Every structure is written in C-alpha cells, then in structure tokens.
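If you are new to this repository, start here. Below is one unmodified record pulled from the training split, so you can see the exact layout before writing a loader.
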Amino acid sequence: MAVFKLFTVHAGLVGGMIMNGLDIFFVVVLGFFLFRGVFRGLILEISSIVGLIAGFMVSNRYYMELQPVANRVISNPEWAQVAAYLGIFISVMFVVALFSVFLKKLLKLIMLGWLDRIGGGLLGLIKAGLICSLTLLVMTVFLPEEDELITTSKISPYVHTMSQNLARYLPEELKDKFMDKASNARSFWEDGWDELIGSKKENENNE
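And here is the target side for that same chain:
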C-alpha cells in the first residue's frame, strides 16, 4: 500500500479535483482494460474466459482417460496425471482460440468488426470495474480506519457501490469490518464534497 502513497500527486486534476495515488491506479486500470478490450475485441475477450472454463471442465472429465497415453512417456504416475490434465487443458484453450480467430475474421468480412471492438471495450470496462472494486474492498477491510488513501480519494465513492455488492460474499467477520469502515469513509467523502462545492461557490462569488 505504500506504493500508492509514493505515487500520490498534487498536479493531477480531474474537474478541479486533486487525485491521489489510489485515484491514479483506478484511472490506469480503467484505461488499460478499455483500450485492451477495444484492441482485442469482444470475441477474443470472451474466448479467453470460455477457453479457461471449457479447459477446466474437459480436463476434469477426461484426464484419467488420457493418462495411459502419458504413462508411455512419463514413468511417474503422478506426473503422468499432471501431463494428461495440462495436455487436455491447453488443447481445449488452443481450439477455442482458433475458433475465436476464425469468428473475428468472419465479423470483419461482414463489416461488423466495429461491433466486436465496441463490445470488447465494454467488457474491458466491466473487468476494470471488478478489479477496482476488489482493490477498494481489500483496502477498506485491511487498512487502518480513516486511512487517507481511501478517505481523500475522489474516485473511490463511485467504485464503492460495486465494492458493497461484492462485500456480501465475504465471511461475516470481514463483511462487518468492511461495513463499519465504509460507513466512516462515506462521511469523509460527503464532507469533502461539501467543502469542494463551498469553495467553488466562494470562488464564483469572488469573481
């Protein structure tokens, strides 16, 4: 967490608001996954997830049937099982990847490549939102109460809503810690917004 504080800046402004290190982390994550999603497209983004799930399920189902083949090459039965499992897993991911490349090219041929890229960008934003929410969730639970990295963040109030939804799946003890600290952080955020609005009004009056 000290890394965030080392990267706290006072020159980064968003709509006149000073960003701290946590805000910059959020912006970088959002930007990275958005552009990555647009570049890769929806098909490749989804296929990577489908490949992992399909590889896991097929490997669980058939690795024992492939083990006799692996035993011919690997004498150790445990390592033969590992090789059989990984062999199926990688093969399934490879097949899914090939299919996704074919489908992506097909979309380009029928002039729907733009739709693939927009969908990829949206999925990238969803991934980024989950990562940012999990980050804020973990930091809220384990950092000291009233930690400045969270309470002075300008983007955290927007990420906080999704973090609350994820907190439902925490063990009861951690969930209670999150709710208590989050409530305290909300009061800091509300005070911060009041001060910001007040200072803007004061500046407008002076002008």
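Two things worth knowing about this chain: Residues 21-71 form the longest helix (51 residues). The chain has seven helices and two strands.
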